[in-house]
Amino acid sequence: MGKDWLIKGGxxxxxxxxxxxxxxLLVEGGRITxxxxxxxxxxxxxxxxxxxWVVPGLIDIHVHFRDPGYEYKETIETGLAAAAxxxxxxxxxxxxxxxxxxxxxxxxxxxxxxKKVEGPLLHPVGAITKGQKGEGLAExxxxxxxxxxxxxxxxxxxxxxxxMRRAMEYASHFxxxxxxxxxxxxxxxxxxxxxxxVSARLGIKGIPAASEEVMVxxxxxxxxxxxxHIHIQHLSSRxxxxxxKWAKELG
Length: 251
Description:
Helix content: 25-40%
Largest sheet: 5 strands, mixed
Low-confidence stretches: none
CATH topology of the largest domain: TIM Barrel
Number of helices: 8
Structural class: alpha/beta
């Protein structure tokens, strides 16, 4: 699609103002130049959008483009193409690549490769620890210099509280969030489903809600101490939600 087109009769939603109206929207040179009940413009493609929503580009803050290392699963090119097809204009790419995105060099590779693809913007999320192993810190400063917008060990919890504290201090210094997976592996080890009546009846080792909640509580306390913004992902427990609500009320 070119950079000029006219979108007719869609329901335009603007979250920044709360506006919602059925109207035409004119794009020229890749920029919105007009919104009105009816717009006439000859010589450019027309998209009939009656019954459809017209919204700002969506942002996916958690994607897995397995490039480098696992290109048979997904590449930066195919991932960005899929994002564009779904209406996403920006994506944040997790660090579970091979090698793990734990250095500025890998971050640089991802950013430069994405620049060659016309379409959505790619924002790398660097690892918290080397190899996402929860031990030594990754090269956080170098990754930020090369374009990392956050740090995360994805689905791997950082069990060592001192390591997580130091990671949050670095994140606070560089003004980036920590994207956090909260799970106490000592409590969840060997579990397959939620611990409760069903797991007992089926004879399947369960995972107690506390395995998530104790780590949520720990990381909320560390975030408060270090002044770090954290985004807690993969939540599955009501108790975790209540803990986050409590932390927000504290400010």
